[in-house]
Amino acid sequence: MNTPHTSMTIGAVARRVGVAIDTIRYYEREGLLPEPLRRASGYRSYDEGAVRQLRFIRRAKDLGFTLEEIRDLLSLSADRQRGVKAVKKRAEERLAAIDERIAELTRVRDGLEQLIEACPGHGSPDQCPILKALTDAEDEA
User: Fold this and answer.
1) List of domains in the chain
2) Helix, coil or strand: residue 8
3) CB 27 within 8 A of CB 46
4) Transmembrane ranges (predicted)?
5) 5-62, pLDDT tens digit by residue?
6) Where are the beta strands (DSSP E) in 5-141?
7) How far apart are CA 9 and CA 58, in angstroms?
8) Sequence-distant (≥ 6) Cβ neighbours of residue 29 within 8 angstroms
9) Quick check: helix, strand or coil at residue 38?
10) Cα–Cα distance, 134 to 140 (Å, whole number)
11) What is the C-alpha to C-alpha distance for residues 89 and 83, in angstroms, rounded to an integer?
């Protein structure tokens, strides 16, 4: 069984978390993951804390948080006084941004669906409603 002091290579951690080795190195450079201890051989040595933190980062990314927002969440997770309230606020902000993006994508989808329905799929390109809408949109820009 792994203890908090279990030493793992970067490859073992990458496999356990399901990320690339280069991703772990990137997170270290970005300050999202602390620099690991080094073995006498110079190889990185990770513990269970690194695995937990990488899973946190990966799950936060899956929920749409940016790396800067994840950095903020990691910092807040250590704040015993205000952390939970602030984390909830960040999650609410992320949800609002996702809802806004869904509404935008729904508008785009509906518009594209209307264009597809209006297009007969044959005839002259200058009569194609899809091409006409794209051309008219460029003139408005």
Assistant:
1) 1-63 (1.10.1660.10), 79-140 (no CATH)
2) strand
3) no
4) none
5) 578 999 999 999 999 999 999 999 999 998 888 888 888 899 999 999 999 999 999 9
6) 37-38, 44-45
7) 19
8) none
9) strand
10) 10
11) 10
